[in-house]
Amino acid sequence: MTASAPLLQLSGLTKAYPGVVANDDVSFNIGPGQIHALLGENGAGKSTLVKMVYGLVKPDAGEMRLRGQAFAPGQPSDARKSGIAMVFQHFSLFDALDVAENVALGMENPPPLRDLAKRIRDVSEAYGLPLDPTRLVGELSAGERQRVEIIRCLLQDPKLLIMDEPTSVLTPQEVDILFRTLRKLSDEGTAILYISHKLDEIRALCSEATILRGGKKVATCDPREKSARDLAELMVGQLLTPPERPARPFGDVVLQVDGLSLASNNPFGTSLKDINFALRAGEVLGIAGVAGNGQDELLLVLSGELASPSDRVCLLGKPVGQLGPNGRRELGLVAAPEERLGHAAAPDMSLTENAYLSGAHRKGLAKNGFIDWDKTRGFAESVIARFDVRTPGPHVVARALSGGNLQKFVIGREIEQNPAVIIVNQPTWGVDASAAATIRQALLDLASQGAGVVVISQDLDELLEVADSFAALNEGRLTTPRPAKGLTVDEIGLMMGGAHGMHVAEEVAQ
Amino acid sequence: MIRLEKRLAPSKRAQYLNPFLAVALTMIAGGLMFAALGKDPIAAIRLIFFDPIFSEQFGSYSRPQLLIKSAPLILIAVGLAIGFRAGIWNIGAEGQYIIGALCGAGVALAFYPMEGWFIFPLMIFAGALGGFLWAMIPAILKTRFNTNEILVSLLLVYVAEKLLAGMALGLMRNPDVAGFPGSRDLRRYESAHNADLIANTGMHWGVVAAMIAVIFAYVMMTRHSLGYQVRLAGQAPRAARFAGVSPTRLVVTCFGIAGVLAGLAGMFEVSGPSGQVRIDFASGYGFTAIIVAFLGRLNPIGIVLAGLLLGLTYIGGELSQMMLQLPGAAIQVFQGMLLFFLLALDFQTNYRLRLTKGARA
Could you list the residue ranges forming a coiled coil in this record (chain A) (predicted)? Predict the structure, then answer.
């Protein structure tokens, strides 16, 4: 604990939205130079809390004191003037501009670009964040983009740096670089409010953690003195059981991809290059990779939304590259894309209508083109019941469901179709721990019944939990799948492309 | 500074209330306009909305007219609404209507003066085919070359109008009457005449076709997978691709349906109420049908009501021209205002205006 006076004191912060209390009487202090973790599940109220500190949201009740003085930022620029900076989970950068130009756009009074480029170099050297100010942002990896955001903040010389889920887009090696930077900042007296739900990271980095659950503070503790399991239970409020994985033999190849390449039609999209893998019945193939390395494209070309030369993708021995999504569904391949609202589900349609969306063919929900709405409703109800989707009923529109509940519905809808092959992208993204466990267990159950499962995910822990074999996507290339057993995090990191821009780091070091 | 904010939950009730509010606001604004023109606003509104049906003086003429004016509007609007639901903007129904009429009339004039039961069905087929083919031009240009269907379909209206003028003055001109532009009167050619099925009711084949189209569209949108695909593509295009909906096929289908129905409307019009291919045959049904579609909430049942209302304004407009010497354009202003108020109200239900102090950094 820091003995000095706290930098930021939060007391009794409360914020309610219609129908939900996002923060309920939350109080804690952040000391100067302290790396303070804000820990909680999705929907626990972490984002609302930091938005209040950053001036994006006004609290309904409670007060904040910065260096002992009342602090009530009306908008983010007030917070920035008081020395608070924030790196968001989703970057606000322009692909077509270079690094220095992007940094300048975020500043109140940017210096001339030439001076700025020098300052960017100085800061990136000082904090070990390799970054070339003249590169186009569109060419940068997610890790490098994050550095742009961090450097933009550091140029303001902040006293408190807020980081929202910073490692979700990083390879393990990039996480190491980031942590070194954060520790250095902390040594120099900059406090860091670090939002995450990754317990190991928090135990490695933070000296104090505040845990939120359902909008309320449940504890403030020193995470280094707690086990990851203790923290998880504080966060979730219940005991967690890891999914069961009965050992099972694999069957024949159900999905074979040979030399699949696909040019992206988006200038900043990712082209797939020479993808090869064979998925056997009963096997779970985990595909790791930092976002934007071709995950979306891979799902689209496997699900049939994008076509490929016919023999590049073979399903149960049949070439299906030219078949659309429904043709592949009929043969037994189903998919669940990452984006729930708008891609996997139509936001303004009811769950019944959304059940029809991908279930029509395999569940025989239409006869001669006429939809059997009773049968469709029954299908929706069975998904809702089996996957514990919290909703008043199948008549509710998709957008009214919370992200986690809709995710359960979307994945459940595919699993309920008893596919021969299922492909999911980010199956538990934004889902709370118990729902995530349900989804992972259902995928494993499906595999043990003989289906081939492809899980594309950025969550390494998830992949290690479910995958039998493991491959990584890096700039549109897929590594050769390896058995997941015995892989270390370091090896996985190297498969994912190591630390992007490490060569720059070495240059800077010299 | 004024900022627009999307409402999280637009009111469902407002959706159904807005058309009625729009009609009321149009009456008020229209009344003000009539007052500014020096006419008694109450009398004018009454003449437009009330007298065509209830007045003893005009009713016997106007009541059949209601069906005659509304049927093509409903027929066209039902087709357009399917496309609009899918986010496919066919603005050129007027052109498809004209071509349908020309093709239908062309068949009749080719057979003249032969009589036969097969002529009228053949005309129906030709009218539908003509509208279909005319609609395929923007559809195929869109799917092949990604052109904007709004522009192409709209510009093709002007091409169709020129074709109509050319036909009326040239190829289809009645050779027996020297000097007068326009074709033979199909009402005097029994095999081609789309006569009232029940005398003096305005109940012709076009009305039957409109009723069938409404039922067909209603069943399709609620029960058939094609209607589901249309709704899905309109609401969530990416989800539609995930569901296996082919955008190309959808564009062609929606334009095709709208083209067939507009072509039929044109054919029933030229062989019945209008009777002749004339330069002034096109009376804007294809454009007014856009208002009908939106006023009817793109819903087949709503379109019936909206079609009857807009049909009424046509008749009322004619009446007010006769009785109050209102300019003919006044009724178009009236229809325009109706769409304007409806869109404004819809906007207001979906968005909220926020006044913010000063510019944001």
Answer: none
The values of phi and psi at residue A288, to 5°, are -95, 175
To the nearest whole Å, the CA of B247 is away from the closest chain A CA by: 11
Domain of B180, in residue numbers: 65-325
| Cβ separation B361–A77 shorter than 8 A | yes
**Chain A: nearest CA to B360, how far in angstroms?**
9
Residue B223 confidence (pLDDT): 94
Q: Tens of pLDDT along B246-295?
A: 999 999 999 999 999 999 999 999 999 998 999 989 888 999 999 999 99
Check residue A17 and give its pLDDT: 76
pLDDT tens, position by position, A56-114: 888 999 999 998 888 988 888 888 888 999 988 777 888 888 899 988 887 777 888 88
User: Does a structural domain hold residue B207?
Assistant: yes
Q: Which residues of B295-317 are buried (b: 16+ CB within 10 A; e: fewer)?
A: bbbbbbebbbbbbbbbbbbbbbb
pLDDT at residue B361 above 50? no
Q: Is residue A337 part of a domain?
A: yes
Nearest to B232 among A108, A346, A370 (CB): A346
The pLDDT value given to residue A323: 93
Residue A503 lies in a domain: no
Assembly ipTM: 0.84
Cβ of B238 within 8 Å of Cβ of A371? The answer is no
Residues A290 and A219 in one domain: no
Domain co-membership, A231 together with A266: no
Range of the domain at A368: 253-495
CATH code of the domain covering residue A179: 3.40.50.300
Q: Would you say B92 and B263 are in contact if contact means Cβ atoms under 8 Å apart? A: no
Say if residue A164 is in the same domain as residue A259. Answer: no
pLDDT at B120: 95
Task: Judge if A80 and A205 occupy the same domain.
Answer: yes
Interface of B with A in 142-161 (CB under 8 A): none
| Residue A65 covered by a domain | yes
* Complete edge-to-edge strand list for the sheet that includes strand A8-17: A20-30, A8-17, A61-66, A69-71
Asked whether A316 and A420 are in contact (CB, 8 A), the reply is yes
B336 found inside a domain:
no
The domain tally of chain A equals 2
Q: In terms of domains, do A207 and A285 share one?
A: no
Q: Which segments in chain A show pLDDT lower than 50? A: 1-3, 501-510
Share of chain B above pLDDT 70, in %: 97
Averaged pLDDT of chain B? 90
- Regarding whether A230 and A260 lie in a shared domain, the answer is no
Per-residue pLDDT at B357 exceeds 60: no
CATH number of the domain that residue B147 is part of: 1.10.3470
Please tell me the predicted confidence (pLDDT) of residue A224. 87
B residues 215-244 lying closer than 8 A (beta carbon) to A: 223-226, 228, 231-232, 235-236, 238-239, 241-244
Distance CA(B98)–CA(B102), nearest Å, equals 6
A216 and A289 assigned to the same domain: no
Clarify whether residues A263 and A119 are in a common domain: no
Inter-chain residue contact A325 with B235, CB threshold 8 Å: no
- Pick from A386, A374, A425, A431: nearest CA to A404: A431
DSSP state of A58: -
Q: Which residues pair with B4 in a beta bridge?
A: B353
